[in-house]
Amino acid sequence: MTQPPHDEQTAASTEELREQVEETRKELGQTVEALAAKTDVRARAQEKAADVRAQAQERAADVRAQAAAKAGELRAKASDVAHQVQERLPDPVKDKALQAAEQARAKAVQAGHLLQEKAPEPVRQKAAEGARAARDNRALLLAVTAGAVLAWMAYRRGR
Length: 159
What we know:
2% of the residues are buried. The chain has helices at 14-39, 41-88, 91-118, 121-136, 138-158. The longest helix has 48 residues, at 41-88. The protein is built from five helices and no strands. It is elongated.
């Protein structure tokens, strides 16, 4: 008779032998399933694609969050610069800028009335969006205008 390996227990009864056979069948079934899963290239490719898609979505969300944060920082810096420019402008330049802004506002109102009378609806909608943006960024628009006037005056003095 042959000797069983030392790491396997010998079955003392037929019942234990049946249990060992059943356990061996379960292990063999699990091994076959694992091998079948490894050879199913389509399923593995779909799993990999799903993983890559999830990673890409996470990365896109991170990039969007970073971009939003950076945009907020840039807006704050632009606002600070605008305030600094306004503080350093001499009163005559501020007065000229205010007059220019008032004239621009009056012309815009006049153009708005004309636009309402003659422009098609999509054009009117775009104009309304532009006007809203200008109103929302009034301080920045005024600072840029004042900076432009200041640059123009400096250029004229240098001639």
